[in-house]
Design goal:
Beta Polymerase, domain 2; five-stranded mixed β-sheet; alpha+beta; 16% strand
Length: 169
């Protein structure tokens, strides 16, 4: 079970992997009640990334996701409640249950800062190739420095992400 930080070159299969998961998730919800978005670096064409597809699931209330955790687990997702200590307003699931993981599911209420910020950051990087290139270079450097420290890697990216989000507001 490795949590080694690996930043891989862009893989054109990542969007298709997201679409496949979105198509598996949609039948669990009433039409029009949720938003399912591809976020994170795998959602930005050409951007190097950890090879984990991030799925943002926007729901009207967290109760809607909590009621569907058994159905999500039946689809191979593992609910990881420990992450709620850091983000109490997010329900986090991962796939597969064993590492290395290929997908992360971040379920939050539509309209929250978490929801808005993830979309804003993705959209900014898609529209600003120079910022995407700077982010890729930073991630490669940090992956070397924090190769066995995923929390350290994540924390070290925070200033860059917050800087981009400040420009988006």
């Amino acid at each position: 079970m490795s949590d080694r930080v690996v930043v891989a070159p862009w893989d054109p299969a990542w969007p298709a992997r997201f679409e496949h998961e979105r198509d598996r998730l949609l039948p669990l919800f009433e039409p029009g009640r949720v938003r399912i978005e591809h976020v994170g670096s795998t959602a930005v064409p050409g951007l190097a990334a950890k090879p984990i597809v991030d799925v943002l699931l926007g729901v009207p209330t967290l109760a809607e996701i909590e009621a569907r955790i058994p159905a999500l687990e039946a689809l191979g997702w593992q609910y990881v409640p420990e992450h709620e200590e850091v983000f109490p307003d997010r329900r986090f699931l991962a796939r597969p249950a064993a590492r290395p993981r290929s997908h992360h599911l971040h379920a939050v209420e539509i309209g929250t800062a978490f929801f808005r910020d993830h979309l804003a950051f993705r959209d900014h990087l898609r529209a600003h190739p120079a910022d995407a290139a700077a982010y890729a270079a930073l991630k490669r450097r940090l992956a070397e420095r924090f190769r066995d420290d995923r929390p350290g890697y994540t924390e070290a990216k925070t200033a860059f992400i917050e800087g981009v989000l400040a420009r988006c507001r």
